[in-house]
Amino acid sequence: xxxxxxxxxxxxxxxxxxxxxxxxxxxxxxxxxxxxxxxxxxxxxxxxxxxxxxxxxxxxxxxxxxxxxxxxxxxxxxxxxxxxxxxxxxxxxxxxxxxxxxxxxxxxxxxxxxxxxxxxxxxxxxxxxxxxxxxxxxxxxxxxxxxxxxxxxxxxxxxxxxxxxxxxxxxxxxxxxxxxxxxxxxxxxxxxxxxxxxxxxxxxxxxxxxxxxxxxxxxxxxxxxxxxxxxxxxxxxxxxxxxxxxxxxxxxxxxxxxxxxxxxxxxxxxxxxxxxxxxxxxxxxxxxxxxxxxxxxxxxxxxxxxxxx
Length: 309
Known about the structure:
alpha/beta, ornithine cyclodeaminase, domain 1, 2 domains
């Protein structure tokens, strides 16, 4: 069985943002109609982080992602995420390939954020982006947003770590034709007049509330992907409707774990037209990361690999 390391995975994903987003859309549609399957991720918690097991099946591939998330690894100059994706033939169970999956996890997360923004931004216009949290995942999100929205003019950023925000600011300026890239010293100033807000922090304390947002905003809430993690104040729901990737998972490990009394819609139902979000309300996409996303991007990478061999 072949194995693709992180460098090989990265090479195969290079400049493929639109393709990856399309694969994410396809697998969400198939999940709604029962053509893709998964069970919610299983957690094994340690003192410093956690391990996650994520099995799923889509079309001719079935697989399991085994991943660790250790938020403080940067202090040891180690990656936050380690993991392996194993892919098998659905018909026979025969092992096909294994892939290092830190990079592919980041890519599929950012691709689904772009997919959600594409379907949930009320007027489909995103001229001002805000990033709260300026790590590697923010770079991938910027790439994916740029692939979807052609009218981005301003990017506002905030990170508790000034070095992170400075690096991210310089990277955007060097790689994109953006009119204005501004680093702020607080959340309120960074989010003012934003069309699309993306929260990408490991926070366990909420920091974004309804006073920080304007009407007609979409929020991609990415950081709360495990029990106890949280980025949004409850007041945010006075202005926003809740959209989840998968409710069973989100209600255990996403922002939805704190607002189980709220109505919700699923991204898959919105994509397929089974549901429509309230056009008079802003939206929050509660992204917890699904196993079907890993199978989809794994399938895409494997297909790219086979084309080159």
